Every structure is written in structure tokens, then in C-alpha cells.
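Worked example 3 (structure in, sequence out).
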């Protein structure tokens, strides 16, 4: 996977170097007319039903900045390959930025649509650093993911509590499934659960590929003698992880694991980006980079 990301960055570099004549002619130099652009970067999803999340983000960003062109890129090469087989072409961040340089953008606000600053986000930081080194733009700045500061954490807590199913009772659990990562920023998930439980002790946060694990969440619920739980994805889209790992009928899905333990489950297949409360955090983060372009 990292090899593919490196190759993607190299492709972007080669693209820029082959367009060095544009730079020499002042096409993107400091004397070029200012042209600001936005690049929204998500992990991506090949699930058709998940596109509603990206459509909501796109709508909110364009409403906030109607005069600034918006472009998209997916960080997942696997997702891009799946979409290509469906006849849908999505660029990697490196290729998208190279194309924006060719379109004579001078200032680019690259906004991460990731939930935390994990491995994917830090790959983006390296990509941005590479383009800065090459001097392809007058300025390029990366915006924070949804949760990057304590203020973001507090806003995420408020957003979660505001979007819990209304029919849920206090003695019933709400379990959020995050993706998880090997990156040190995985600690955000446990920190989020701690801050949620200060306000609602029966809200839990687990991850598919990190900590807290599903077994721990199950044990915590059993210790509290919880009989029913609402399962929600804590990811921007309700894609493959939500449909299969969380709500699937296989023995190792979260729904099956909890049901086998005697906990009745109800699943909600809506990604965080379907709710304005979460999207507003990303949109506000985008204002940071754009504020530097004035």
C-alpha cells in the first residue's frame, strides 16, 4: 500500500517536472493571477449508497465558498481501482494536485475528510510537503481532519449526542464503530469514548482495526447488564465496514457478536457525513487554509 502511495507521489512529481516550462513562463509563479481552488480528499468508497455522504459534503462546501472551484480525490488506491472498473475515474491526491497546477491554480486549500489524523492524513501531509518543495503553487495548505484538537473533540461529542436515535432509552447502549489505525492517533477513539461517557455513560466507541476492540465493548456492556444496543458507524460513509463488519449477518460482525452475548441490536447505516453537525466541523477547518490566501 505504501509503495502505491509512493508511486502516486512520484507520478505527481513527474507530471510537475514535465510542466516545468509553465513555471518558467510564470504560469504559476508569484506574478501569476491568483486562482484559488479547493481539493477535498476522502478515503473514498465504492458503495453507491455511501455517495450521499460525499454529496452532502460537496453541497455544504460549495454553499460556504460558492466562488471557489472544488475538486475531489480519494486516497484509497483499492477504491479508485474498483470505481475505475465501474467506469468512474477518481484521482489520487497527487494526480489531482498535478491537474490543478496544469489548470493554473496558484493557491490550493486541501481539506482532509478523514475522521482523525491517522496514517492516511499524514500521507497527505507528505504529499503537500512534496508539492511545496517543487514550488508548483504559490501556496498550498492542508486542513485538519474532523478531530484534531480538544475543541474538535467537544464538537464531535455534541454532534454524536445530537444524532443518537431518538427512540433510544437511557439504559440502552449506543455503540459507535470507528475504523481504527496502527498510527498513534488511534488514541483519539478511547479519548472520545471517555468524553462521551462523562455525559452519557452508555455510549461506547470501538474500532475495526484498533483499540478499543469489539470484545472489550461487549464486556463493558455485559458488565452494565445492558440488554439492547444501537450500532452506528463512526466513519464519514456507511460503506463496507458498516454494512458487513458492523451490521452483517456473519458470525464475526459486531451485531452477531453482541446478539450472541444476549444484547439485542439495532443498526443505523448512516455515515457521519450525512449529518450536518459533523460536516460543519470539516467545513470550518477548510476556513483555516483559505484564510491564509487573502
Amino acid at each position: 500500500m505504501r509503495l502505491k502511495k509512493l508511486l502516486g507521489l512520484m507520478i505527481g512529481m513527474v507530471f510537475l517536472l514535465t510542466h516545468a516550462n509553465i513555471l518558467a513562463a510564470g504560469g504559476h509563479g508569484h506574478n501569476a493571477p491568483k486562482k484559488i481552488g479547493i481539493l477535498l480528499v476522502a478515503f473514498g468508497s465504492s458503495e453507491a449508497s455511501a455517495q450521499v455522504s460525499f454529496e452532502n459534503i460537496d453541497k455544504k462546501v460549495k454553499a460556504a465558498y460558492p466562488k471557489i472551484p472544488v475538486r475531489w480525490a480519494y486516497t484509497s488506491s483499492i477504491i479508485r481501482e474498483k470505481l475505475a472498473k465501474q467506469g468512474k475515474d477518481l484521482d489520487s491526491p497527487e494526480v489531482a494536485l498535478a491537474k490543478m497546477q496544469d489548470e493554473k491554480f496558484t493557491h490550493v486549500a486541501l481539506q482532509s475528510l478523514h475522521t482523525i489524523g491517522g496514517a492516511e492524513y499524514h500521507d497527505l501531509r507528505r504529499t503537500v510537503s512534496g508539492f511545496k518543495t517543487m514550488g508548483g503553487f504559490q501556496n498550498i495548505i492542508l486542513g485538519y481532519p474532523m478531530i484534531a484538537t480538544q475543541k474538535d473533540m467537544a464538537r464531535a461529542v455534541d454532534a454524536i449526542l445530537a444524532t443518537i436515535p431518538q427512540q433510544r432509552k437511557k439504559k440502552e447502549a449506543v455503540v459507535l464503530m470507528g475504523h481504527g489505525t496502527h498510527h498513534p492517533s488511534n488514541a483519539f477513539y478511547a479519548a472520545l469514548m471517555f468524553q462521551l461517557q462523562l455525559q452519557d455513560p452508555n455510549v461506547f466507541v470501538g474500532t475495526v482495526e484498533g483499540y478499543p476492540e469489539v470484545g472489550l465493548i461487549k464486556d463493558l456492556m455485559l458488565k452494565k447488564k445492558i440488554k439492547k444496543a444501537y450500532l452506528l458507524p463512526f466513519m464519514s460513509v456507511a460503506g463496507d465496514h458498516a454494512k458487513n463488519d458492523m451490521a452483517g449477518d456473519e458470525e464475526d460482525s459486531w451485531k452477531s457478536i453482541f446478539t450472541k452475548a444476549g444484547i439485542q441490536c439495532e443498526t443505523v447505516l448512516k455515515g457521519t457525513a450525512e449529518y450536518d453537525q459533523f460536516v460543519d466541523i470539516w467545513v470550518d477547518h477548510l476556513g483555516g487554509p483559505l484564510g491564509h490566501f487573502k
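Notes: The longest strand covers residues 36-42. The chain has two domains: 2-145+276-291, 164-273.
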